[in-house]
Amino acid sequence: MSSANPTNIAPPPVPKGTGRRWRDIALLGALFAFVIAGLAGLAAATGWEETKHQLMQLSLNQFLILLALSLVNYLFRGARWHLFSNRLGLPTTFVQDLRHFLGGFAMSVTPGRVGELIRMRWLKRETGWAVERTAPLVLMDRASDLAAMGLILAGGLALSAGGIAMATPVAILALAAAFVATRPTLLAGCVTTLYRVIGKFPRLMARIRTAARSLGIFSSGPIMAAALGLGLIGWIAEGYAFHLLLMWMGADIGLAKAIAIFTFATLAGGLTGAPGGVGGAEAAMVALLSLEGVPLDVSIPATAVIRLTTLWFAILIGLAIFPLAERMSNTAART
Fold first, then answer.
1. pLDDT (tens digit per residue) in 281-335
2. Secondary structure (DSSP) of 134-196
3. Pick from 204, 235, 263: which is nearest to 70 by CA?
4. Which of these, 138, 246, 252, 319, is most buried using a 10 Å CB contact count?
């Protein structure tokens, strides 16, 4: 009797779906690597020592108030995401949409705002809708933020005793971008013109044009008014938190100016293209506070704390919800 040769034994069949699971694991690993890199950059930009020192000066109640106002922002913008989802015709519930919206914050400091891509990935798994069909949801969310922040900045400038350097052009740019992004024909035309100029990425440009043309469903007055109202409440809440923080630190520059500085810094950070506006937002905030006579030993820790209780808080919420959203979307994809 001849002995069996182990080298001739065929390998067991690979279970169906194993390759997909490994691809998912690899993708998540890469995404979290981006998050870690972004957090390291944010820590270097704001400084751990200043953050620690200022936190020790704040009472627990004051700290909780700042977090609560940030949570108001996230919840109201999450409600806006649900409004757009329903308008688009997605078969999702409010809890489901809120899970997607908040879970995407885990990717707030990743290059290219991967958070939005994750949300569309979850939607594709749970509803079967292709990315091209859900892309208008992301475009409207971004455009609504730009419109709300542009109006807040313009209002803050009008109510402030003195102007903020370069704030008017930023407000105009934000409002112009929001206007273009919410006009399907105009946005599609801009994409076509861009493609003719660069002559690259034909498939990507075609997808963006397809998404742009489907924005008309959001153009009704009541929908736009409700979306703008939710965005205004959310962002004003965070601006008010910055005002309270400056008051508690003995640097009261006025409500309108504090909100304007916070909004301008957030927009300016976004214009730099850095993940989460890291670096640009902090630099703008410190510089504008210094122009208002706020000393560096107050402006630097104040900037660190407000970023901690806004951007960092959002990331922590996202990291807490991300595993649940990923698990539930995987479950939905298997059924």
1. 888 888 889 888 888 778 888 888 898 899 889 988 998 999 999 999 988 877 7
2. HHHHHHHHHHHHHHHHHHHHHHHHHHSSS--TTHHHHHHHHHHHHHHHT-HHHHHHHHHHHHH
3. 235
4. 246
